[in-house]
Amino acid sequence: MSKGGVLFLLYPLLLLALVLNCQCEERKLHIVYMGNKPEGDASLASAHHSMLHKVLGSPSSAKESLVHSYGRSFNGFAAKLTKEEATRISDMQGVVSVIPNRQYKLHTTRSWNFLNLTVNKVGAPQESNVIIGLLDTGIWPEHPSFNDTGYGPPPAKWKGTCGANFTCTNKIIGARYYNSDGEYYETDIPSPRDSEGHGTHTSSTAGGNEVSDASYYGLAEGLARGGVPSARIAVYKVCWSFGCGLADILKAFDDAIADGVDIISVSLGGDEPDDYFDDPIAIGSFHAMRNGILTSNSAGNSGPFPVSASNVAPWSLTVAASTIDRKFVARLQLGNGLILTGISINNFDLNGTSYPLIWGGSAPNYTIGSSSDYSKYCLPGAMSTDVVAGKIVFCEALYDGSGILLANGIGTIMADVLVVDPDFAFTFPLPATLISPEDGHKVLDYIRSTDYPTATIFVSDAWEDAMAPIVVSFSSRGPNAITPDILKPDITAPGVDILAAWSPIAPPSIYYDDKRSTLFNIISGTSMSCPHASGAAAYVKAVHPNWSPAAIKSALMTTAHVMDPRKQPDLEFAYGSGQINPVAARDPGLIFDISESDYINFLCKQGYNTSTLRLVTGDNSTCTSTTPGRAWDLNYPSFSLYVLDGQKISGTFTRTVTNVGAANSTYTASVFMPTTIGVTVEPSVLTFSSAGQTISFTVKVDGPAISQQPIMSGAITWTDGNHVVRTPLAVYNYIPGAPYNLESDTSYTTPAKKTVFKSSSIYHENGIMRHLKTRP
């Protein structure tokens, strides 16, 4: 063989050896947060490029690496770096942190009436000056909820703009989009336009116009509107079909602050909280606070597990989700006349016609290797079309209905041992209802004892829920894993079965390939409760434009409707101060205000050092005079006292209230706590002689040694005869930082068959259907 022939044969081996020995590492997106105040976009972008040049070695590499320069409201950039390059940049002067980019999850009218914010209480002229900025999946601008008829030009303070392929109006006054990865899936649109539905839903919940005769295919028909219908909306699209990038979230905060929004609504987050300055939402909301903007965050959909709340920074409003006085039920009737009631949003009308009823386990698709153990769950592809076609199928799992739909079935009755008492409903692409496991046994017994079993499923009815409000099962719970001295969540708001606007090109059910179209949808999540709180904050901001973010937050918390503790064993860890009461929040009487310097003092006590703080604040902030310790003196409108096992209950809190009510007023304190806990308020009477006057008081809490004690709680209430200013107080055993997550505990295992959805509807993205990924 010739030398050339030998080389030709050896070439693939040589190439393989080069590949195996190559130390080239793929560059991945990182966020470089530098904190200090910006000096202008151009100079900062140049400085960022220079830093990358020093690390990467050439101007061209630096240019290719740089994705975002943050410089409108704070300093930092996003760049594609290897781990080694990221480490070198983290050691450079001025760098606070380098955070690998990750994907966050999205956390969805009658609800405003349920909160007593009725139509006759909105519409004041100043409300059209309030701008709500939403970080989400974008918006569908042609939707009637965003019609700008009758609106004047945007407020003079507005400095925002519109992104590509999008035209702004006098209602939607700003729209930007961000995709640092540069990847787009089939349904993604490279513009602020919404193809997922989530952003359209949250935008209309917070500030959508009044739209009469709104419904989901005839269900929940009525007037749909936002909390402040005349508010302006600015959209920052950071979420796509695959998630929400951290680098894009931070850039959106940078722009929203500089654009001039008044409230920022963020219905997304991680599965668990991060250190404040490793979390782009905490970073962004800190700078928003510095600029007088309140950020409203969803608490997350990882409940009911404790220590699951995310977005827990004290300068933002953390919102749980609770029910309203309406629930959707879908009844079914068996051929023997038995009627059972399930939970479902079912718009499909079978006109009372009964169809053959079978058990999913009797219809396996043997051709693909399925068996009864799989087909009883009615998974896509696991079902025999020959058997399922034209029938209603009883399935032993809550799923998206696609398994039956693709097998040409008529409908599905579901019972799931993991969902014993469902407290929210799903929409499906075919007639469907979810019944209790107990009723599931009745259906299965009927099928097995009858020669020709039949059933029908009725269109959903809207029933009054007299138990409302109750915090829904999926809503993430406290205590606060990062700073347990701060009670989280702060508040709860409607987040269950909420009707609001929808993108007509987004799937209208939990089945991602549902090709139907609707302008309104009914969905659930802390994503839905968050814009309710954002709308309530905008409602307060309209009449108090000069109030600080902490003042607005305090007003919402101290005037909240008190939740019934008998219905919620985890108490304030579920609902915080209670359910929002927007009308009362406009006149709270007293507020607990917090300044930037107060938050800096708080951070010092949490262990941040002077150099880090100065990078964040850009000023001469120092921690030398602050001893690390508990956060009991942060002027927060709630009280949280965690105790290590075996220790006595003991803590002293300092608070200062500002009179925003009548100039001459006297407030008297009353305390409600379990008898084993002593609480002393000093002074217990506060007398004011002018508006804006401040008075401080202390709260001393004492009690016996406790161990393995869940939350015990009560409240301190100040009253003057006209106002009720209520602050919850929680006492419990906890080790700071201790997680509660069985999914990550290797000592806890169960035999499992993995069930993975083909793609992701909004419920799959936001984590509500997480438990369905693993079947027992």
From TrEMBL:
Cite a single GO BP annotation: proteolysis
InterPro entries on file: Peptidase_S8/S53_dom, Peptidase_S8/S53_dom_sf, Peptidase_S8_Asp-AS, Peptidase_S8_Ser-AS, Peptidase_S8_subtilisin-rel, Peptidases_S8_3, S8pro/Inhibitor_I9, S8pro/Inhibitor_I9_sf
Signal peptide range equals 1-24
Spell out the subcellular localization from the entry. Secreted
| Domain called Peptidase S8/S53: residue spans | 128-578
Q: Which CDD domains match?
A: PA_subtilisin_like, Peptidases_S8_3
Q: What is this protein called?
A: Subtilase family protein
Q: Which organism is it from?
A: Abeliophyllum distichum
Q: What is the lineage of its organism?
A: Eukaryota, Viridiplantae, Streptophyta, Embryophyta, Tracheophyta
